Amino acid sequence: MNYLSEAGLDGSGGAGVSYPGSGVGVNPGQGPAPNSQPRRVPVPKLPLHWRAHHWPIIQQDVEGSDAVVVTFLRKAPGVHTVLLYIDCLTDATQPSRSEMEYLGDGIFAMSYQVPRGWRAGYSFYECAGFCVPWRVDADCPLDSLIDRSQTDPRNRMGCQDPQGRRLSLVEALPESGELASRPLAA
Question: If DSSP codes are grouped into helix, strand and coil, which group holds residue 173?
């Protein structure tokens, strides 16, 4: 069994990945965010052909729930840390809470449970050298990292933040079940 099957990324129903500190969201230090607010959750079992999908992958949370799980994935070989910046969700005072989990083979992942209709701009900041700026400098200005962050090449939807920076756009719309199974165009 390889790391993809152990993490449930090959569609075989593996154990999944658990994250210490799950429940990170818009209320840092106050426990899990309410169901109506985005909150970090373990990466769920992904569709069988997850590598062929648009990213992020959006899946129904539980039967009868109005929530969906958005799984952000980043392929970044040669990188040791990836910060996922989500507009209005990433806590600038605690950027380490937005570090993505390394799954192996250059793949990083992070999932959030969000209400249907939730939209957000996001980008990735990759660290390949010895320095992880927010660990070295407690006063590291997150804005300077966002200026050097990258959009998601697996997502064609985009937006701009108020400062004019280009971000990828995720929309957890009612039709998100269709988005989760839509393969990439050739």
Answer: coil
CB 112 within 8 A of CB 70: yes
Residue 76 has pLDDT above 70, yes or no: yes
Token pair of 113, please?
């449970």
Q: Residue 7 is encoded by which pair of tokens?
A: 């993490």
Q: How crowded is the C-beta side of 176, counted as CA atoms within 13 Å?
A: 24
What is the set of domains in the chain, with CATH numbers? 3-24+33-180 (2.60.40.10)
Distance (Å, rounded) from C-alpha 178 to C-alpha 59?
Answer: 9
Q: Can you give the C-alpha Rg of the chain in angstroms? A: 16
What does the alpha-carbon distance between residue 167 and residue 20 come to, in Å, rounded to a whole number?
A: 27
Sorted by sequence, the CB contacts under 8 Å of residue 13 that are 6+ apart come out as: 45
Q: How far apart are CA 12 and CA 5, in angstroms?
A: 6
For residues 87 and 48, what is the distance between their CA atoms, to the nearest angstrom?
Answer: 29
Residue 97 CB partners (closer than 8 Å, separation 6+): 21, 24, 28, 40, 91
pLDDT greater at residue 94 or residue 141: 94
The answer on pLDDT for 112 being more than 90 is: yes
The closest of 94, 158, 78 to 126, measured between CA atoms, is 78
For residue 123, what pLDDT band results from cuts at 50, 70 and 90?
Answer: very high
